[in-house]
Write a structure and sequence with these properties.
The chain has about 220 residues and is of the alpha/beta class. It has helices at about 45-55, 60-65, 80-85, 95-105, 120-130, 145-155, 160-170, 180-195, 200-215, and strands at about 10-15, 20-25, 30-35, 60, 75-80, 110-115, 135-140.
Length: about 220
Amino acid sequence: MGLAPLDRTVVITDVDGHATRSPLSGLRASPFVILVGEPGIGKSSALAFEATAEGSRVVTCRELISDPGLAAGQSTVHVDALDEYRSSGDGKDKVLQLAKVLRDAGVSRWRLTCRAEDWHKKSDIDALKAAAPGSEIVVAHLQPLDGDEAIAVLGQLGERNPQAFVDNARARGGAAFLESPLSLALLSAALRRAGGTWPGSRFELFSQATIELAAES
């Protein structure tokens, strides 16, 4: 299954608290961007979309720390999953490590993803300033999928009638499942396991999805 080619919407909040909505592609002129979002909302896919548009590739934070040479030859370095890297408890400041690698590699443009609950805001920004000389670091919050984006993701998941899927989910109180690629994939898999039969209530819908989530691969 390939990625749905979506130019996702982000929100940027300035120092005065003013929020601005923008397509992610609208930030390409900014040299340093951090993409923050909830688990499963599609940060990695959004980063891959941008990397493809810029003729680059995605590396994980862990990969880049282990092999700084991965940044060589990239006009923009796209770094995924700061949260996963910093979760390993070896006592080191992971953001400072990343900033040093980017700085020492002479990277002039980068993008970085992190889960919202693992983003430390000012302290992380301060640490990354060493790798962002002379320019502002833009923090963009990835927004939930809209209806058209949910339909596009369902198409990539192999759903024959994505619009009917969306309508059925909303009719049963499952609109929250439509907001992230991960929850869409979960609900799609749950329905396939049930033979394509939609449950009759919101409770049954969530129960079916929970059973799918708990199933062994």
